[in-house]
Amino acid sequence: MRRGISRNLLVFWFTLLGIGIPAASYDAQQLLPSQALIQPQDLADLLTHSNRPRPTLIYAGFHSLFIGAHIKGAIFAGPDSKPEGIEQLQSVVRNIPRSHAIVIYCGCCPFDKCPNVRPAYSVLRDAGFQNVKVLHIPMNLHADWVEKGYPTTKGAGY
What we know:
The protein is an alpha/beta fold.
């Protein structure tokens, strides 16, 4: 009972602050299939040392964090904890073939608490995308990507 009240209060405060976590659809503890996850080192290797086709990188988080630092080549399409973010994500992927590789990520907070990647993953899978991966960022993008020297850029551009 207490846990339900705490979650409801959290959703209420996020809603007041404009963060907008949909109470009915968001569950940070929702497990993603292990085959849906890609580790930072593996993605960095794919982006810098591979002849394989490059996946479409989609940032499903907050715009201010995207401007601060994002994976080089990523497209902004979030935050996907909000209906507007989901709409933007759907717009971004509208012309991408359903078999094309997509990697979505956020990195705003520890992975198990991220409000954005799970809704983005679900929307893409429900839309018929067959090769969707979620970048597993244990702590945050800065600690798990930027500080490791992986391909990063700043600003609103891609």
